Amino acid sequence: MARKQPAESKCESCLNSLTRCFDRSVKYLEPFLVAFAVILILLDVYTFFMHVVTEIVQQSGLAMAGIHVVWSLWLLFNVFWNQMHCTFTSPGTTLEVREEALQSAMTFDWRWCRKCNRGKPPLAHHCSVCNRCVFKMDHHCVWMANCVGFNNYRFFVLFLFYMWVGSLYSAVVFWLHVPGLSRLDDIGKDPRGFLPFFMFVASCSIWMAMCVLFGWHVWLVLTGQGTIEYLDNSSRAADARAAGRRWVNPYHLGAVANWRETFDVWGRWWWLTWMLPSRRRKLGNGYDIKKVNPDDLPPGQVMVFQGI
């Protein structure tokens, strides 16, 4: 007589099936979300050239219109450049590294991934959507149809930066150079005014969303954390406070050093070159991450080298 499956096992099996279905649906949905984002950006560009540039020519002349065109094309190029590289650049996974290299680099703070059947270094996490362990994984982004990790995180942050600047610029020029944009009755009388009004509202909404999202990732970069690590670090800091100690993030090298390390920028002009387009490969291998030297810590501070 067959044993009855425990209720807890049935619930766990059902939950796992739902999770797998959700992950598969995300993979099918991602291309449509990426296409929607591209179409929305291109619609904004179309509205700008059809409705704004002509008004700038009439109000300020060809020279000023030329400046606006060059600036808008620079923003557009950087948005698509960083989106493309974030989407098509592998974030860096354990499956891309020879197993012998991973085994030789393993230390006490590594874990073992039963799904990939390989060692998993600190800051690496298994993505259920991509079904692989990603080095220094931040999150899986459906708008990029890719995981954001060690190799492509800088492209993601730069995409957010140029979307933040571009959406603000778009909203401002629509407001200043589209006649009657602030009067809804004029928009109702002239159907041509609806598209600039719609893109103005969309630009304002996107800019507010970018303020939150870009600001969040700027703070994460400056503090040497990722989105996933922040959750673990918060609980570890609370445990350390309860024990009368101060917990220190072992990967926080300092705000400036964290920024340079993320964007691979050096020299005296690093504070400008970080925002320039680049296709160079990220320095490092993704599993040997720089850490703070424990000997440099003052008394009373504790550093936990656990697998994060």
TrEMBL record:
Domain of life of the native organism: Eukaryota
Places the protein is found: Membrane
Catalytic activity: L-cysteinyl-[protein] + hexadecanoyl-CoA = S-hexadecanoyl-L-cysteinyl-[protein] + CoA
Palmitoyltransferase DHHC domain ranges (all copies): 109-232
Keyword terms, alphabetized: Acyltransferase, Membrane, Transferase, Transmembrane, Transmembrane helix
Entry EC no(s): 2.3.1.225
Written domain comment of the UniProt record: The DHHC domain is required for palmitoyltransferase activity.
Name this polypeptide is given: S-acyltransferase
Lineage: Eukaryota, Viridiplantae, Chlorophyta, core chlorophytes, Chlorophyceae
